[in-house]
Each structure stands twice: as structure tokens, then as C-alpha cells.
Amino acid sequence: MKNTLIILVILTFSSCTKKIDLNGDWKASVLVVNNSDIREVPNFPITYFKSDNYVIYFESIYKYEIDNDSIAFYYGDNPTELKYKMGIDIVDDDNIIFYYDREIIDSTNSKIIIPYHSKWYRIK
């Protein structure tokens, strides 16, 4: 009985992981810079997630993989070479958030890391 209960608990927790079918067209709605500066993003191109784990992101083709709370984009012609790795929050079936950092060099040649996140919705 104890073993059966343990197996049921494990199956329950493993089935509760957040999964989403990203296939389809996605549009960015908001860009947040440095966790405070909210900007509308009408000029972001549509992102297209395909069923074969390919994505067209900013008009380039990548292979993507999701691992827990991160998404990695690999070059389409060289699927072992990483281009982007971002955090991903799957809000619901039609809304996701990408988290990433930008590194810039200021006038004193110091590196500054600025956190960004962008909110995306599925185009129906």
C-alpha cells in the first residue's frame, strides 16, 4: 500500500508540470527594461513556433528547446550552436514571458547588465 501511495504521489507531481504547445504565431505586447521602464513594442516582428521545434524569431530560423523555466534557440543550420538562452514563464496557453539580460559597455568601458522581459500573446 505504501509503495502504491508513493507511486501515485510521484505521478501526480510529474503530471503537474507546466507544459504548453507553442505552435502558432506570437506577438510581443510589452517590453520591460530594467524591471521598471514599460514600453509598447509595435515594431517587433511576429514570432512563429513550428511543430518540429523550429521557430522564426526576429526573422531568423532557430531550433528551440525548452528545459524547465528556460528556452534555448540554436542556429537552424547548426543546431548545436547556441544563439539565445532566455528564461520563459508560461502564464497560460496564450501568454508567455521571455526573460533575458543585455550587456552594454558604458562610457567608462564598464560592463552593465540590464534585465529585460517581454510579454507575448498567441495570435488567434
Q: What is the subunit arrangement here?
A: single chain
User: What is the C-level CATH assignment?
Assistant: Mainly Beta
Which structural class do you get from the secondary structure elements?
Answer: mainly beta
Q: Count structural domains.
A: 1
Order of helices and strands: HEEEEEEEEE
The termini sit apart by 47 Å
Largest sheet report: 8 strands, antiparallel, barrel
CATH architecture heading: Beta Barrel
Counted by DSSP, the helix tally is 1
Provide the CATH topology.
Answer: Lipocalin
So what's the overall shape?
Answer: globular
What's the Cα radius of gyration?
18 Å
Average predicted local confidence, pLDDT: 86
Notes on the protein architecture:
The protein is mainly beta and about 120 residues long. It has one domain (about 20-120): Lipocalin, CATH 2.40.128. The protein contains one helix and nine strands. It has one helix at about 1-15; strands at about 25-35, 35-40, 45-50, 55, 60-65, 70-75, 80-90, 95-105, 110-120. Strands 1-3-4-5-6-7-8-9 form an eight-stranded antiparallel barrel. A hairpin with a 2-residue loop joins strand 4 and strand 5 (about 60-65).
